[in-house]
Amino acid sequence: MDSSISTFPLTPSEPLLSFVIPVTLDIKEDDGKGGFTHVPREKKCFKLRQNLKKEVIITIHHRDRPLPIERCFGLLISPGRDVPDRHMHLLDMVSMKQSSDAKSYQLKSYWHPTQQEFEILNTETPQGYVYMTVAVDLVIAGIQEPVRFIIETRVRIYQQNERFWYFSKKPIRETFYLELEQTQIGGMIESDIQYRVQSLESETQRVKKRSLPSSPANSAKMAQTPDSLCSFAEDETGS
To answer: Which residue of 123, 148, 156, 213 lies most exposed, with the fewest beta carbons within 10 A?
Structure first.
């Protein structure tokens, strides 16, 4: 696995660091010719075909200041949304490379949807769509535990021989807001400074919070109940 690391100023004068991190998710399918081709997308919904090996690509972009990523600890997938950590499934062969302009990291992994744990994501969707969660665990300099970024997306599963004529190839885009708090300084050099994650929130999570009831009890109840495995009618708009 390729890895590289960029740096940002970790100094006692910066006890709290804030990052705005755009992340994109793209999926490709085996084209039967030794390569992979982009999966169609419509109304924020990936159109997947049954039984085809897939390539999952996550790109971490830098804005304002770079995030010092040391390596990718794992890329995971599960049917549904609001998925508990224990229900996420680790994918094979994660690779990571930094762009030539050092402004992004690209992570790739292979996904075999024929495995039993992905049955819902390999079964033809009768109508509407189902949800899928993709997560990536990143090891970041100065933080002891891996940091998990989670993207939830709609998918619709079609027969393996389905053909698509008009569609978008644009990846799904999510913006994350990360705040790191300085916890200790082990020595006199910058590399000894340690941080912990004070908060990590996606734009989607912020929108959900604004739509939840004001009661803390109701909010907690809704947050703990995944509507994971059912299909939804196409009653939402977006591109």
So the answer is: 213
